[in-house]
Structure formats: C-alpha cells, structure tokens
C-alpha cells in the first residue's frame, strides 16, 4: 500500500515512516511527489518538497532533476514559485456556483478555463458553525481549492473566502415597440427573460434604443414587468457598445450612495506630518485628454563629486491613502472594482470623481498630498540609493506628451518655454542616464503598436490611429518602473507585507513549442537552462528585417506568461527585475494603494498605513485584483471588437489587406492592421485542397500541394459577414496559398495528430 504524504499549513510534515526511510537514503517515487504537490498546492515549492521528504545534500540535486523531468514531460507546470499539476486549479480561484448534488452539497465551476476539456467540478464546503460566508446557487465566490481522492465525485473541494456582490440594480436590453403598441425589453444577455414595460415607465425610450431597466417582482401570470431607468442611445452608438461590455462582464459602474457621501465628506489633506516640497518644480506629463494626474517628475544633476555624471530623479505620486482608509465604504468599493476600466468614450473609475479627479489629481498650481521617492543614479544608469518622503507638493505645469516632446525638439510654447532649461532638459538628460541602466538590464523588448480609436461627436468610430511613441512616453515609463522597484525594495528591507507585480518565465512546454517553431525557420534555440529576456531579444534581433520578422515577434509574444499580483515574489521576467511592485497609479489600481499603505506603515509616515488585518488578507486581495484586471482587459477588448465590427458593417464585400493572427484546425483568424480588428476564415472555405493543421509551424497546408498559410502572413481578404453586437466578422481568403518550408515533413509529423475539420462556414469574431 502506497504511503500518503499530506501537507499541513505550518511545520515539517514528515511521518515516522518517512523518517525511518530517510535513514536508509529513501527517495520518494515520482507518483509520491506528484501526489504531494496535488495535495499541498500552497506548499509546493522545491524547498517545501525537499523538506516534506527530508531530502538534503545530493538528494536535493536529485529532486531538482526529477522536477525538471516532470515539467519536460508535461506533468507539472511552474506557477509563481510553486509547482502544480498541469491542468490543476489555482490554489485560490474565482468560482461560479451552479447547483447542488444529491446530498445538497453546492457545486461550482471555475470562472476561467483551466486547461482543455470540461471544466472541473468543485464541491463547496460550508462552515458548520456559520462563521464563514454562506453562498448559494448563482453566487460567484473567491475560494481556496483542494484536490480530492474521489474518482467518481468532484475533483476539488473549495473553502469560500468571499462572496462577490450580486448585481441587482439594472438589466440591459433593447427597447422594442410591438405592432399592437405595447412595449417590450429584449435583453442583451440570453439568460434574461423578456420584460414588459408599461407606458408610464417608458421614460422617453424609443424603438431600438439600448436601455437600462429595473425589473419588478415577477407576477404569477405573464412576463415580468420593468421600468426604464436610462436611455443609453441607439445600438450603433459607442456609448451603448461600452455599456454592453460593462454589463456582460459584471463591472460595477454606479457608485453606491454611501460611497458618494463618504467621498463628498472628505476634507483636503493638510501639511501636518508632511515635508513641504511645494517649491520643487515637479511637472505632470500625461496624454492630452487625461482627466486625472497621479504622477509628477523632476530631475537634476547630482552635485556629489563622488558621483560624476550622475543624476537625481524625483517621482511624486498622489497620496490616495490619505483619503481611502481600510475598511471604509470607499475602500470596499475600490477593492470590488480593483482598477479603472478604459473604453474609447468613457472611463469606469476605481474611485469617485471627488477623489480621482479632484483631491488626488496633481493639478497645476494647487497643493496636493503625495508620496515621493528620490533616486540617485550613477552615470552608467545604476541606482545608488533612494529615499521615500510623505510630502505636500504643487505641480509647476501640466504637460501633454507631444507638448513636452515638441519643446525638447525645438518647438516651445508659452508653458514649456519658461521651464525648458530648468525642468525639461534636465529630465531628458536624466532619462539618457537611466536608459543606460535599462540597456544593461535588457528587459524584453517587444515594441508592439498600440492602436487608438477616435470617435465622432455622435460616438461612432471616426478612424483608428497608431499614436507615435515618443521619448516623452519612454521617459515617464522608465521613471515609473524605477519608482516601482524602489517601493518593492524598501518594503522588503522593512519586512513589510506587500503585493508584488509578478511575471513568470515561460513554461518549459512553451519554450519547447517555441524551439520547435524556430527550427522550421532554420533558427536554433538552446535547450536546458531557463531562458532570460535577452535571449528572446537575441531571437528578435536575428530576424530583424527578414520576411518572417512579424511572425517571430508574434510567436515570442505568445510564449510569454501573463503578469499578475501576488504576496509571494518570483520577480518580473519581462522587465528582468528581481523585485517589482506597482506604486505609481493608486488612483486607478488597488494594488498601488496597498503598496502606499505598506510604505506609510513601514516608514512611520503617520495615518493610513497597512493594518495587520489587511496584511493577512493579501493572498485573497491579490487573487481579486488579478481577476478584475483580466475582467477589464476582456471588456475593453470586446468593446473595441464591437465598435470596429459596427464601423465595417456597411463595407461587406469590400477587400482588405490583412495579417494572419491565429491558426487553428478550424480555420484562420485574420487581423486588419489598419483597424486592429479580428475576423475568421473557416477552413472549409479554403479552396483547391484539403488543409491540415500543423501546430508546430502555426500553419494550415494543403495535403496535395504542400502550400498553405502561416501565422503572420500578409494576405488579402474579402469581408463576407458582420455581426456587430457579437463583434464578429467572417472573411473570404483571396490570396493564393504559398509553399511552406518543411510542409511535407510537417504533414507526416502531424498526420496522426490533428487534421483540419471541414466544418460548414460560421461566423466567429475572435479567439476566446
């Protein structure tokens, strides 16, 4: 009978059986290691495993090799600084409760997909004493998950940490006037029933308007009734499109009355317990249309003769912690939102306007509280030292990126002219120094174009542009990165709990996939040691100017992991930094507010510091704000897709230049570079051959000819069908297939693994 090694939250979990085997140079089997990792997701780092099995000396080297083999075989994956079974749930996950089993136990699925196949079922454990949250069917919860041994029942059990608030205030729908003159609400979401609106509750809505309605209590007979709360506009307007995304992703967008009241009652911060820096000419440099300004910068040459050519850079960040105290209504709402969400026409802010656009916005010429970090750099870009300060400041100028850049380039105006020599030129000189440190560090350099949608006055799309990336942007970006690093370093040195911004290295499976892909292009990639960002940069340099430059950039991008928040540090792979925390945007990110509170507590800066209760909840908070960040990204992406689809709906049958942005066995995803929009070409619509999917080469190639299409190919397509509200477009391929290197070899390799499915054409807007 196999011995079970089970983990506990603290201490050594070796049994007497284990200790006896240790004396005989016992080494656990692969199955025992895998079982331990599955049963102890919160204690699955290499050191934890070695400690659990009492491995020392050479046995630890043996364990490292075994764990690497298990990763190479696809049985384990590395998540943060822990190992996990491939396809396993995260230890802390967001779950949706969908029903009960025969014994009445609540059952849930993970909100986000985990691996391939059917989502796992989680049995929800409810505290018998009633001490914890009590969820019900339909609730979305944050829970700690634990694998089970039951082969016939749920794969996991879950202990609920938090129940997310249900949205009960409004339903989104389309106002319809029927032939008999009655009014109906056609819901945007299919799970909602149709609603009847009485004339007195029409509130000015017209046929085809997108409206918010408040459902009334359902009657015993007929459809439920509702009243119109607000008319959001026609279905083709941008405002309606972003509102669909807000509702579809459950993004809180209306501040409760108690939150607004609390914000309005806040008094401006005073100079008490602060350093007076109001004479220092800090300036804000932001997008021209920015409404809040949470960071300001200043730089001077270092006057210390021991640091020739060095500079001193000051970054000041709005002191949001002065106004948002832990446990208040403002704080609870900010945590629920997690971050601000940015749409082309609107911002759904994390904090009410009284805070974000007034008291915490570093307005020109007005006193504002801030946390500042003063950093000294050597001439080669190395940071020598830094110090944090709680200050009162007064911004000397509010500048836009193009305005500041134009002044440096010789075109000054009434605002930039007087500060060109005293403020702007020293900033650019300091950036030149700090950039040397960045070049030495060699972070991952994927400079991908960022498109911006410009709207007409009626809220519809005018055009899509790629804003020029200026040195002004890079200057602010690098100064903010250095300030974030300084915050993490200070909190670590003070042994203060914090939330890190972490970015894991690509998994071994992704590295191997990249290696196989590069081989199809005649490029090699060393196997074995963990990759570093400069190795990716080396790959990108080798293909610069080549026909497949875009393809390689795309594949390298897809090899990367997703950044997230965690109280456990594994560093930031993309930035090539050992420690990193978000500090510079507390108006729009809750993670930064936590870091501010940590600095206040660690450095004795007075009121508003991180509490012990808050520090103990950082794992839960990290999972929450990582989830809200992904939610915001999805909502923003969906809105752009719908906007562009609506914009192109009148251009069916037109030809477009496109680039293949995704390859699957079902067909090709194509992107229109001019618009940044995605559409789909079903494999069944590709004429002249039977197409086979080659996963390694990211291509579809003809079984008979060997010709086909590959990721990042430039092609010409015709728009066939548009579904604006779904953000979906279907295209027809007009470009002939091309010979693909190694396609015959790829055919034999792939033949038994995955063939293109000859399904009927369908409309799919983008990858999910």
TrEMBL record:
Reactions the enzyme catalyzes: Exonucleolytic cleavage in the 3'- to 5'-direction to yield nucleoside 5'-phosphates
One GO biological process from the UniProt record? mRNA catabolic process
Ordered alphabetically, the record's keywords are:
Cytoplasm, Exonuclease, Hydrolase, Nuclease, RNA-binding
Provide the E.C. number(s) assigned to this enzyme: 3.1.13.1
Q: By its UniProt entry, which CDD domains does this protein fall under?
A: S1_RNase_R
Primary localization: cytoplasm
Organism's domain of life? Bacteria
Q: Name one GO cellular component term.
A: cytosol
Q: Give a single Pfam family match.
A: RNB
What ranges does the record give for the region Disordered, renumbered to this chain? 1-24, 734-768
> What family is this?
Belongs to the RNR ribonuclease family. RNase R subfamily.
According to its UniProt entry, the function of this protein is described as:
3'-5' exoribonuclease that releases 5'-nucleoside monophosphates and is involved in maturation of structured RNAs.
The protein's name in its UniProt record: Ribonuclease R
Q: Which organism is it from?
A: Mesorhizobium mediterraneum
